[in-house]
Write the structure tokens for this entry.
Amino acid sequence: MVKELFIQGNEACAEGALKAGCRFFAGYPITPSTEVAETLAIKLPAYKGSFVQMEDEIGAAGAIIGGSWGGSKSMTATSGPGFSLMQENIGYAFMSETPIVIVDVQRGSPSTGQPTMVGQGDMMQARWGSHGDYEPIALSPSSVQEFFDFTVEAFNLAEKFRTPVFVMADEIVGHMREKIIIPDKIDIVPRKMPESQKDFLPFKNNGINPMPSFGEGFDIHVTGLTHDERGYPDANNPKTHDTLVRRLSSKILDNKKDIVSTQKDFCEEADIVVVSYGAPFRSALNAVNIARDDGLKVGSFKLNTPWPFPEAEIREISKNASHIIVVEMNLGQIYWEVERVACSNSKTHLIGKIGGEIPKPNEILAEIKKVGGN
Amino acid sequence: MPDEKSPFLKYLREDRLPTIFCPGCGIGTIINSFLKGVNEAELDFDNLALVSGIGCSSRIPGYIQSDSLHTTHGRAISFATGLKVSNSDLDVVVFTGDGDAASIGGNHLIHAARRNINLTVICINNNIYGMTGGQISPTSPKGSFGSTAPYGTTDNPFNLAELVATAGASYSARWTTLKIHHVVRSIKDALKNPGFSFVEVISQCPTYFGRKNKLRSPVDMISYMKNNTVFKAQVPSLSRKELEGKIIVGEFANTKKPEFVENIKELSKSKSDSEPIQNSAYLEEF
């Protein structure tokens, strides 16, 4: 039965997780993400799942990796300071190809910053926060419905590509209440058990491997050390390392077509394009609509997946647009990615708003008019 | 010795031998004791899941033919917590060292003990960081030498078995590699205890601890253990001075307490019609 609910973004995230098959959550309280944990603490027992409040976020990240190898789709939710603490174990999850979902409801930062106010300062931390080379997948919802949808999608991508996936939400989307529709049937991607224990290579140099859970007789060895196809450490072998780390990157980059998601409004003939993601998209689209009513050729480009960065799509937009305005709640993180890709075709501008308030439509409209010569 | 193979060889990943452990290291003795303990506890070997962090002792799971999770430094117990909650049928054993468990992983250690989660933690305490080359650890005796304590450490060491018992573990014990029958029996008891079990094994590191503390050979180190071990039962009859620098062996906790994952299962049963579903990630529908 289709369900209509009027709920908070963080609650919608929890509902999405349950719908996607999440049956293990480990977390640590942190504003403004705590309602995700609180909702799952209430609901998981009824869904035949388990909830654990860990001693810190390092432990929470460790527990969900363990939970995933135990055979459960596993998730945690946090905000900037907790996301910082998780980074080492996040790197472990990339190296060991463990599907997990990490939700970051971003707040004002750096450091303790503005715990109850909105920010988008963790976008580059999602990209590069752990040491070493890896290709993350991140989704940024801009509505309560999308927080539900993107959480489901995060689990599906995590299983499909055997990799950690981030839902990079923000305090506005986390705390606002909107109506959402939960369809009766939702496509979910189940994990694949390898067919045979005999000669099974859990880390084969061949794209994405099926994943056994512990206790099924595969005698799998999982390590964060550079490992060969059997999973055995081979850390002093340059070729093993090169092969492994390149495979981990290419299993994402070679499948960008399946992963990257954007929403384009009025971009075809646009001379000015406003790029945004998360809550600021709401203001951006509003400003674009007003500017269009005033006769300006303006479009809106929304990144549903900031990572992997939609390079081809931004390059395409830049061919027509003289100006690209990036709106985000930091001092320029995704902006530099846009500049890197679009600089030879378009002039790029940043509306980087910090302080804990969303960029307002009139601020964006003013910038559109400034660069558009009106 | 004749060509007779060890009865435990079948439990090892033979294609990974020889191990990285130094000659004279106590870890080999402890692997042997562990396999014997598993046998004596009559556990199904296929049901074992071994988890470890970083350090010499954390390399053990890589040599045992079993599912094994070699994790980040200090965090093994948190990974093991998720693994056990996710599949409570597994017999989850954590191998760790004094640096891994008591320094960087100290928080996870005491909280797992507090929860009394059914894990067996075997902590190989050699009083030093071996893998990184002989730095002092949170269990290095006061006055002992390490590469980061060239003038002797002035830090106070942790009493690990007692710390874990105080934090709430239902089983905690300390033994040495000198008397392996104690270690075997203790590992057996730990594996059978349905709660958090901690077995601290004082072990020799001749390569680093020995070299820096005038106990260069494994025999010197074992002799030191022999001459300085006191049973816990003897403690009340000894003065503080007589106990100085002594290794106190024995059980520090052995009780029955409610277990963490059982509590989660009960909650699930009360809110739905069953315990948490295992291997739910493989289901096509929910």
About this structure: Chain A has a mean pLDDT of 97. Chain A has two domains: 3-182, 263-372. The first helix of chain A runs from residue 9 to 20.
